[in-house]
Design a protein that fits this description.
40% helix; 22% strand; elongated; 12 strands; D-Maltodextrin-Binding Protein, domain 2; Arc Repressor Mutant, subunit A; 292 residues; 3 domains; five-stranded mixed β-sheet; alpha/beta
Length: 292
């Protein structure tokens, strides 16, 4: 009698959901060769080809699609048994990637509420730039990521669309200077759009602060040495939106997107994704319950 192995089925399901062995290995915390060996053993045991490897990306064969339906049911039943009979289901770690400029104010309150519901699940917060976070997600280094973009890639969902606003020091006058003094990180996704808007408006500008540090940008802007652009509602209290009366161009609207939520792996991850959706859809972080 042949028996299907839950670990192998979980690997097969993760490869199907993530679209490749490399990403699946990252999500499963296994080596790429280990995942490939599990898939090969599964195919050998069944005597079937489950993956179509002829293209640039891995696709399921007809047999693979049939198995995937059963694999989801078997893995879900396995996890339900473990959850009901032990308390180990709500342990582990989730890596959440968030761009620097949208960590506040929503994410801290989301993490606070999540910790109250899942105290034994550790959330590792990775704050970086959208481009870097998407690279890490593609490698399987992040379970969930938020991004700031003008569009959304396949597999992602848009939580909210907001305006990109000019920000400066409270009561500052740097926005009146010409050439206009700008402060941006080198990898900021807003930077080329801001520069493009200024060029279209024929406004002379200089990159006064060109750095890899968001702190350096905020320091220069708060000192009224330059101005910056941030998504509406996400500027820190020591910066404010500039009331320029039309002297500066309108900037393109930005989407805050979520990736990884459609790859169901645990109740904890699904709940973290739900809290992020609620926080950004409402424009504010959800309050922790009084019983937390």
């Amino acid at each position: 009698m042949r028996n299907l192995d839950i670990t192998t089925l979980r690997s097969f399901m993760t490869v199907a959901d993530s679209g490749g062995v490399t990403r699946a290995a990252g999500f499963l915390h296994l080596t790429q060769s280990a995942v490939s060996m599990q898939l090969k053993r599964l195919e050998d045991m069944l005597g079937l080809e489950l993956l179509d490897r002829t293209g640039r990306t891995i696709a399921l064969t007809a047999s693979g699609e049939q198995l995937l339906v059963y694999a989801r049911r078997m893995v879900a039943l396995n996890d339900e048994v473990i959850e009901r009979l032990t308390d180990h289901a709500q342990e582990g770690e989730i890596t959440l990637g968030v761009p620097h400029d949208i960590v506040y104010p929503a994410v801290p309150q989301v993490l606070k509420k999540f910790h109250a519901e899942f105290p034994r699940v550790r959330v590792h917060l990775e704050a970086s730039h959208t481009r870097t976070l998407k690279d890490q997600f593609a490698k399987g280094d992040c379970d969930l990521i938020l991004t700031t973009e003008t569009d959304v890639d396949p597999g992602g969902e848009t939580l909210v669309t907001k305006s990109l606003e000019w920000v400066g020091a409270p009561g500052g006058a740097a926005w009146r200077q010409r050439p206009l003094q700008l402060a941006f990180c080198r990898y900021c996704t807003f930077r080329p759009r801001v520069v493009g808007a200024l060029d279209d408006a024929q406004i002379d500008w200089q990159m006064a602060v060109d750095t890899e540090s968001d702190r350096a940008v905020e320091a220069a802007v708060s000192a009224d040495l330059a101005i910056h652009a941030m998504i509406d509602g996400n500027q820190p209290p020591y910066l404010q939106q500039i009331d320029h009366g039309g002297a500066l161009p309108i900037l393109p609207r930005q989407q805050i997107n979520l990736y990884g939520a459609n790859q169901k792996r645990s109740e904890a991850q699904e709940q973290l994704a739900a809290l992020l959706r609620a926080a950004f859809a409402l424009g504010q972080a959800p309050r922790a319950s009084s019983g937390a």
